[in-house]
Design brief:
The chain contains three helices and 40 strands. It is mainly beta. A hairpin with a 2-residue loop joins strand 7 and strand 8.
């Protein structure tokens, strides 16, 4: 059920890299896997492969189950709160190859559900400059092995939906683009799997994803639908003459077996009493209200359940403006119901929130910053800086935070620069990053041996803030990094003193020795590592 914002890497950057590579023949190009972290080798015999870190420095999805944390979009897990990491990339790759006979190297996890040994992952992949549904994968053995399922899309002839006593006209959703699975949950009693898939709406499966039923939610002009009553409306997204409430972003089944669905036009609730025989259920839709008694905004992008002892679990939702003309007064914020939908409270007004998590006495929300509440959401502290446990680690000042989760002994924050962990009563944060060795052992096609590489590469100084230059030292020493423009004019010299032996990194902020930001184009660098000089290249693109 964990999701994250979609800040996917633009393909036009790679086009520039290819053009540059054809023009420039300088050695020491960065390994391909350095852009997003290590990729498990298809030659590995292991299932969950031990790794030195997470699979991608851009952490978009987190899901926690007691001491175990799952991390996406390159699926890894830590079963012991950061003491060790394992990659589930290879088991998912095997499942995709077994299920459809082809593997897309750009497959990413866009949604996660994990409880004990049961894991479900929603998958997406790139189609030109957009992302689309790539299916789902599930594991019943804690991630050791996965089974692949195709995306739950329609056949072209699926232009009607049976809903109780009514037959409704419907748009056949046949395209992967726009149907990325962004929410997934499992009913704890029936085992039914529910997914939220954008334009494909909410779907439910009772047979582990082999077949799917299309879930009918109220249209935009109705607050409730009931399968025992006559209904006549169109089922589909607004671009197909349908409803925003049929575009789904998240879904959750709570402790009362109530199903919640977040859409472009509301928070939809179906209680256990609303369930009929078969897939059909009655639904109540809640949306923005002028009096401040409803949602802050009608677009619901994330739904989270706060587990409490001895009382009903509150349901929290990240609520955004719907973007419709009638939504002009709506606000970004968070909406919570503590009584199953009878009443609502609003908090964090004006804040665009992506994700929420809960500690024993705290609530965490991530948006443009990390927000922490010690009083059940009445007031919030803004966390702008993350002091790091390791003084040699560094983060950009405008760090993007994407996701959050809590294990039994830590709070976690997924960022564009790695995974952050803070334990109780600690003032500092531990930073976990993708560790791509210069010389992989065993060698991998995705990351051939090199003496140095730089990442992110291409590098945008205004958004990335700095590029990391990686190299290896035989012994502790001062290191000098020199950066040259295309004409081999020296533009910057950086001395990094007291570096330890082993693989190290030096940051460059994209500025000259005079403090001026460099122009777009290729730049070359050298690193004096004592035993010699290693060289690499960086493409600066704003």
């Amino acid at each position: 059920m964990r999701t994250g914002p979609h800040r996917w890497w633009s393909l036009r950057w790679w086009s520039l890299v290819l053009v540059w590579a054809m023009l420039i023949g300088w050695p020491a190009s960065p390994p391909a896997a350095a852009q997003n972290g290590p990729v498990a080798s298809s030659l590995q015999d292991e299932f969950l492969v031990p790794t030195a870190g997470i699979g991608s420095n851009e952490v978009l999805v987190l899901e926690a189950d007691r001491q175990t944390l799952w991390v996406g979009p390159r699926l890894h897990r830590t079963p012991d709160e950061g003491e060790s990491f394992e990659s589930a990339v290879e088991p998912i790759n095997r499942a995709i190859e077994d299920g459809r006979g082809a593997l897309d190297d750009d497959t990413r996890v866009s949604a996660l559900y994990a409880q004990e040994n049961l894991v479900w992952a929603g998958l997406s992949t790139a189609f030109n400059d957009s992302r689309g549904a790539d299916g789902l994968a599930f594991s019943t053995d804690g991630g050791e092995t996965f089974t692949f399922r195709f995306p739950p899309l329609d056949a072209p002839a699926d232009t009607t939906v049976e809903y109780g006593i009514s037959t409704l006209s419907a748009a056949a959703i046949t395209r992967e683009i726009g149907s990325v699975p962004t929410g997934v949950t499992v009913h704890p009693e029936t085992g039914a799997v529910w997914i939220a898939g954008g334009d494909s709406g909410v779907r439910r499966s009772d047979d582990e994803g082999e077949t799917w039923d299309r879930v009918v939610l109220p249209p935009d002009d109705q607050d409730r639908v009931d399968p025992t009553e006559a209904n006549d409306f169109f089922v589909g997204p607004p671009e197909r003459d349908g409803s925003l409430n049929h575009v789904a972003f998240d879904v959750l089944v709570d402790e009362q077996n109530t199903v919640w669905a977040g859409t472009g036009a509301g928070l939809n609730r179906s209680t256990a009493a609303d369930a009929a025989e078969g897939p059909d259920r009655a639904w109540q839709r809640f949306a923005y209200e002028d009096a401040g008694e409803g949602l802050t905004g009608s677009q619901v992008v994330a739904i989270r359940e706060q587990e409490l002892d001895g009382e009903r679990n509150p349901i929290w939702a990240a609520t955004w403006p719907s973007g419709t003309p009638t939504g002009a007064q709506e606000e970004f914020g968070v909406t919570v119901t503590r009584d199953g939908g009878d009443t609502f409270e609003q908090t964090l007004l004006g804040r665009r929130i992506f994700d929420l998590a809960f500690g024993e006495d705290r609530i965490y929300a991530v948006g443009d910053q990390l927000y922490v509440s010690d009083d059940e959401g009445a007031t919030w502290e803004t966390v702008r800086d993350f002091p790091l446990e390791d003084p040699d680690d560094f983060l950009p000042s405008d760090l993007a935070v994407n996701a959050t989760a809590t294990t039994s002994g830590a709070v976690w924050v997924g960022t564009d620069e790695g995974l952050l962990r803070q334990r109780p009563d600690e003032d500092t944060w531990s930073l976990f990053r993708a560790d791509v060795p210069l010389r992989p052992d065993p060698p991998r096609d995705e990351a051939p041996p090199v003496d140095t590489y730089a990442y992110p590469n291409p590098f945008a100084p205004s958004s990335d803030e700095f590029v990391r230059i990686r190299y290896e030292l035989d012994e502790p020493r001062d290191v000098t990094v020199r950066i040259f423009d295309f004409n081999m004019n020296l533009v910057r010299q950086i001395t990094d003193r007291g570096q330890a032996s082993g693989e190290q990194e030096t940051p460059w902020d994209g500025r000259t020795d005079d403090g001026l930001r460099v122009a777009n184009g290729p730049y070359f660098y050298t690193v004096d590592v004592g035993s010699g000089e290693v060289r690499g290249k960086i493409l600066v693109v704003e």
